[in-house]
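Memo to structure team: turn this sequence into structure tokens by end of day. - J.P.
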Amino acid sequence: MKWLFFFFISLFSSSSVKCQIASRIGTSISCYENGDKVKSQVARIYSLSKRQQAYSKVEFIYESVPEEAKITFEYAAGIWETFLNSPVPIRVKVIWSDKTNALATTGPTTLYMNFEGSRFVNVWYPVALAEKLAKKELNPVSEPDIEILINKNYDWYYGTDGNVPSDKLDLLTIVLHEIAHGLGFISSASVYEKQGIIGEDSFYYIYDLFLKREDGLFLTELPNPSYELLDAYQNNSLFFQLSSITSLNQFPRINAPSYFIHGESISHLDELAYPIGNENSLLSAKFSFGESIHVLGDVLSGILVDIGWGTETEAVYPTIYPNPTDGVINFNSLNPVIKYEAKVLNALGTEVLEFELRARNLELPSINLEVLPKGVYLIILSTPGKLFKFKTILMK
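Reply from structure team:
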């Protein structure tokens, strides 16, 4: 039976598909003000001394930024540093400019796929997240991971107390917001010739994998390009398959207004679900004069954890039970998926059963091996971006 031992060793030597590392220039999105003047404050007192216990290091590279504004940026870095968990410094270039009509334009400078440590294959990750998962630098240390263009023509409030005058815009709020986009809260969704498109170079962003319609179908399950995708972008009923915050009664609602606007739709939270003054309103599409929001909120935090910013213990992978089994195999997984393909191989490596499984309510249906004779089997569970292998013993 030595051949059987080596057969299973070879099958279990790798738990995920290996593909060649690739990179491309990142994309950016713009954020705007809505013209309203509404005094609103969702803030907390934060001490920069906490940066001494920070899990990550956020470093700013300034270009033409006023000295008084730099204090605000460093304060924002301190808030993000206590949430993020990366052994690699996150470098953010800030350009104080009049070359945009938006409040700010932001994006990751580079996207990577198939790097060591990636949880999905053939999926684009923003460089800061890719470096966190790879545990090493991928960009040259002389290059930033995120680039933020701030419109210098607005009357900005540089304070960090949240008490923003009704005729000024809160710089701290916008900086916190823009960094979130650079960390991965960004979709590749676009529209061409009245059809929705998702993906860059035919591959999805990590954020895209979690977006789904109210009927439970993920955007990545829909024809691409298609009118069906465009309808999903514009039906005010788009959600993020959140797994890390079980206390929420529903999945977070994503901004999907009746008319698609590149950079505004999909890559923000829905403002009706999280209106001004709500603790989860930091990722709104537009901001008011006098508005401040200095907390990340559970929704944003949970989304970032799910795309990869959580600790290793927060990364949930599928398991099977019971094992050994009398026939029924259950899957325990909180990972959002489009669908699973499950194949069962016998000890000779021959495929004997095949199943298609669709996750609903964060649970997968079980599979039944009772038609097979007792023995040792290999279950191969695959998603569009990952492959898992489980050995099981069927006992009757």
